[in-house]
């Protein structure tokens, strides 16, 4: 009797272990994909911020989604718009990224930006996943320290 009980528990624990391995096998790739997307959206924003800091209109424009590109017309117009309406995005002394929220082909990334005068802003970036699997910035809303949206 004792041997049959031990064999039963061994077979059950083996089945449970096998089930856990299969379950982890399906969860781990999904988690890795989520991490990859989070890194990708942050990288796109950081690269665009770096391009603005270098006054590289073409490079900054590269990270804009098709809708933004169509609205701006060209890289120089895009840079002029950012300079005048989003000065903290154009020139900032610090950028701190919060954890991205990604749902399907859309992402929201909040970034705490500090302007050259030490004033803090919250930028809410939206990004779209393109057919070529590249994330591009589709919008940016700014909220100042006093709670006003720009």
Major pleated sheet: 5 strands, antiparallel
Helix content: 40-55%
Please report which band the strand proportion falls in: under 5%, 5-15%, 15-25%, 25-35%, 35-45% or over 45%: 15-25%
> What would you call the quaternary organization?
single chain
Low-confidence segments, given as residue ranges, are 2-21
Distance between the termini: 76 Å
Keywords:
150 residues, five-stranded antiparallel beta sheet, disordered N terminus, alpha+beta
What does this protein look like?
This protein is an alpha+beta fold and 150 residues long. It is built from five helices and five strands. It has helices at residues 2-53, 57-62, 66-72, 75-85, 87-90; strands spanning 94-97, 101-103, 106-114, 120-129, 135-144. Strands 1, 2, 3, 4 and 5 form a five-stranded antiparallel beta sheet that branches. A hairpin with a 2-residue loop joins strand 2 (101-103) and strand 3 (106-114). The longest helix is centred in the first third of the chain and has 52 residues, at 2-53. The protein is globular and about 40 Å long.
Note the topology.
Blueprint (H helix, E strand, L loop, with lengths): L1 H52 L3 H6 L3 H7 L2 H11 L1 H4 L3 E4 L3 E3 L2 E9 L5 E10 L5 E10 L6
Antiparallel strand pairs: 1-3, 2-3, 3-4, 4-5
Task: Put the structure in a nutshell.
This protein has five helices and five strands. With 150 residues, it is of the alpha+beta class.
């Amino acid at each position: 009797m004792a041997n049959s009980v031990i064999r039963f528990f061994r077979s059950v624990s083996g089945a449970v272990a096998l089930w856990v391995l299969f379950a982890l096998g399906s969860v781990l790739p999904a988690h890795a994909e989520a991490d990859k997307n989070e890194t990708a959206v942050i990288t796109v924003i950081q690269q665009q911020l770096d391009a603005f800091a270098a006054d590289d209109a073409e490079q900054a424009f590269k990270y804009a989604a098709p809708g933004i590109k169509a609205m701006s017309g060209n890289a120089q117009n895009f840079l002029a718009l950012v300079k005048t309406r989003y000065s903290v995005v154009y020139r900032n002394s610090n950028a701190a990224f919060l954890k991205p929220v990604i749902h399907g082909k859309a992402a929201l990334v909040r970034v705490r930006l500090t302007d050259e005068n030490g004033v803090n802003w919250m930028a809410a970036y939206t990004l779209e996943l393109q057919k070529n699997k590249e994330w591009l910035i589709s919008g940016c809303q700014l909220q100042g320290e006093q709670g006003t949206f720009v």
